[in-house]
Design goal:
By secondary structure, the chain is mostly helical. It has 11 helices and 3 strands. Helix 2 crosses helix 4 and helix 4 crosses helix 8.
């Protein structure tokens, strides 16, 4: 999975345009670096730092009007410029990046990839699927990690996976120095994006609704225990 992540990430960056806005690009890398540091400290405190041994973190801002962001295994993160107006600054970005990195850390993509391989290829191993049906396997990979409609139907995260990513994401943003209380208004802004138009790509895999927002409000007090303003 890590090897394919590196390959597909490099391929994606070659096929898309990196933002030339130096200020916005620096903000994405700055927030990403803070969240990365938080994740590493969190895992070190639990004696699980070996789980991040093969991570080669990257944070890039891509020119695209989609309201979207994602993280592949190994810490390969992309933020779309279309997300920035909804993020409204570093704290909003920290919500998204913490949440997406949490999905990757918890190996939710691996779980969905396994489900997809079972459904589409009868449970073939990833290597076998790549050898026999490389194009279809790439399409499955892209759908698993929410890389856009051009790759077909996106696979949604389960409620359990979403809840886990919400909880860890809040902890990571808090440890990175961002107030976890700001996650609630961010998701409210995301929910408002659905009004009168097709929902953003991000919401194809991450449903934003009243239940999530209620759960976030319940999770914030725990995350606040980790919060140290930067």
């Amino acid at each position: 999975m890590l090897s394919m992540s590196l390959q597909q990430y490099d391929s994606f960056l070659k096929e898309h345009t990196l933002s030339t806005n130096k200020e916005q690009t620096a903000m994405v890398k700055r927030v990403g670096g803070k969240v990365q540091s938080a994740v590493e400290r969190y895992f070190a405190a639990k004696g699980l730092q070996s789980r991040l041994a093969d991570y080669k973190w990257e944070f890039n801002l891509v020119e695209d009007k989609q309201v979207n962001a994602w993280c592949m295994p190994g810490g390969k993160v992309v933020v779309y410029t279309g997300l920035l107006p909804v993020a409204q600054g570093e704290a909003g970005l920290a919500v998204v990046m913490g949440h997406e990195i949490a999905h990757a850390i918890a190996e939710h993509g691996n779980e969905r990839m396994s489900q997809g391989l079972l459904a589409q290829f009868g449970g073939s191993a990833l290597g076998e699927a790549l050898s026999s049906k490389p194009a279809a396997t790439k399409q499955l990979w892209m759908s698993v990690y929410g890389l856009g409609t051009q790759y077909g139907a996106l696979l949604p995260y389960s409620r359990l996976q979403e809840s886990e990513a919400d909880r860890l994401g809040l902890v990571f943003m808090a440890m990175a120095g961002y107030d976890p209380n700001l996650a609630v208004p961010f998701w409210q802004r995301m929910a408002a994006q659905k009004q009168g138009q097709a929902p953003p790509e991000f919401l194809s895999t991450h449903p934003s609704d009243a239940t999530r927002i209620a759960n976030l409000k319940r999770l914030v007090p725990e995350a606040m225990e980790y919060f140290r303003p930067s």
